[in-house]
Design goal:
The structure is a homodimer of 301-residue chains. Chain A has two domains: 136 residues, Aldolase class I (TIM Barrel, Alpha-Beta Barrel), CATH 3.20.20.70; 125 residues, Alpha-Beta Barrel (TIM Barrel). In chain A, 43% of the residues lie in helices and 14% in strands. The first copy, chain A, is globular. In chain A, 50% of the residues are buried. The two termini of chain A are 21 Å apart.
């Protein structure tokens, strides 16, 4: 069986939506612990406006800290999300190893989020991605709202494929399909992944699912079954907003690793260590988080 | 697409493990509401010793109540679990429409639960099932611990197939594969279902999964994908024991129905009504239950 790769996004997609700001020292502690688990990539922040998103205000500082060799002993790749050229510049300065950036397949979502149409956003994101690649950085581009949109509802598969092809035509192979609204279902995932691979077998697809309707793990499984090798998930299942009705977070890293372990995959990852960090997150936020394996423990048989 | 069928087991597998006994009047209310949702079969109790399992002590009374035509307006099938001949007799007297009974694929589980080996248990269960069939009753037989055992760990697929074949040889076609310990993973489910159907395409398989490790919906999906048409689930995701570490319950009915709805299946089922009952259960037990759709609501797009 082929190796799969884990991109831990809890520090960004998880902490970003929390009301309670995690102090920089605590973030550094969690990132160091996450690096010890053996996950492949850790997304540690987003280069957004610090006043608009105070939970991400220390992103530059975190990257600067981990740019010092004495602070980063592992070969884990540290990724950061950038939304525009200014964010890219900040990320370059701060020492980002992998840049993540994307456009939305939903025109409404794109316009509300960026003021641009999907095509206008592509015209800005693709040069940014190329610049980062030219600078020797790893780059992952994404298709947001790839499986549905909170504003528009269903999103045509062709729109997702259109964006994927634009990326590939520009030599950007690392492409993440993000289920931003959490609408994906496993038949849709199967259809999307097989369609993309039949058109473009060279894409290095990543999947980013939320467990909003309880199908997160099923969606990951179907993506895996059809050849996806990169998965984005959050320790403890962070990413749900405790103050809105939409309470479900990212697919939970430990539940995902536990499933892959059952398939004989990624047994090198320290699942116990991930559970310890998840437990710390529950204690920090003083509420139960959606992780299943955290509740019942690892099955040792 | 073929129709799938839902067997709601929350009133039995869910309430059975709760410390707080649901009064008979409340059970009647919930069962009546569940009948209005359009689920196909409702398991309303277990014919166990009333002192040993006080939560199920009113099982005879419930069946007697619903045997009266004025109390049951729908054609929902009411099922009851029986463990032995005495339970079967009680169930016959009380008016059970579908008898559920089974043996464990794990010798250790079988001996601990019944004092019998799997073969000894089969020698008792098969005549019971035939008697119930002869009496014009619907019968569903099960293979417990079909995907793993809390005592033994892994269970060989051949043991499950051996029991399935015994049932089929005796003309009992309705067979439920029960993941009693919650160990199943979707690759294992795929392998089990395709193996059974390749040997015995005439089996009417049902799947009963718990969401212990977050793979419940993924397991249901793979079972569905390989031809399983009957699914057992519990409203609100009941079935987890709040007083032990093993907190996860049955696959949640509303999450399962919501997924099937996305495939265009069972849109006749009143999902809103199921959510109302799930909400009542949360209020009754005064704790958050694992249902996802209950948290975020139905996606109306």
């Amino acid at each position: 069986m082929d190796k799969i790769f884990l991109h831990e996004v809890g520090m960004r997609d998880g902490l970003q939506v929390e009301q309670q700001i995690v102090p920089t020292e605590k973030k550094i502690e969690w990132i160091k612990e996450l690096m010890q688990t053996g996950v492949d990539i850790i997304q540690i922040g987003s280069f957004v406006h610090p006043v608009k998103v105070p939970t991400m205000a220390d992103t530059d500082e975190l990257f600067r800290y981990f740019s010092k060799p004495e602070n980063k002993k592992s070969d884990t790749v540290l990724s950061g999300l950038v939304l525009n050229e200014k964010g890219l510049d900040r990320g370059m300065d701060a020492g980002v190893e992998m840049f993540c950036m994307g456009v939305s397949a939903s025109e409404t979502h794109s316009k509300k989020n960026t003021g641009m149409t999907t095509d206008e956003a592509l015209d800005r994101i693709i040069p940014m991605a190329k610049n980062a690649l030219s600078a020797g950085k790893q780059v992952q581009v994404s298709v947001q709202s790839a499986f549905g949109c909170g504003f528009e509802g269903a999103i045509a598969k062709e729109r997702v494929i259109y964006i994927v092809e634009k990326y590939l035509q520009n030599g950007i192979l690392n492409i993440s399909l993000a289920d931003t609204a959490g609408h994906a279902n496993p038949i849709q995932v199967e259809d999307m992944i097989t369609s993309i691979y039949s058109i473009n077998p060279e894409a290095k697809l990543s999947c980013h699912f939320h467990d909003t309707y309880g199908m997160g793990i099923a969606n990951c499984f179907m993506a895996y079954k059809h050849g996806v090798k990169y998965f984005e998930s959050a320790f403890a299942g962070l990413g749900g907003c405790p103050f809105t009705a939409k309470a479900s977070g990212n697919v939970c890293t430990e539940d995902l690793v536990n499933m892959f372990n059952k398939f004989g995959l990624r047994k090198d990852i320290d699942l116990k260590k991930i559970l310890e960090i998840a437990k710390e997150a529950e204690e920090f936020f003083a509420r139960e988080l959606p992780s299943k394996v955290l509740k019942v423990g690892i099955l040792e048989h």
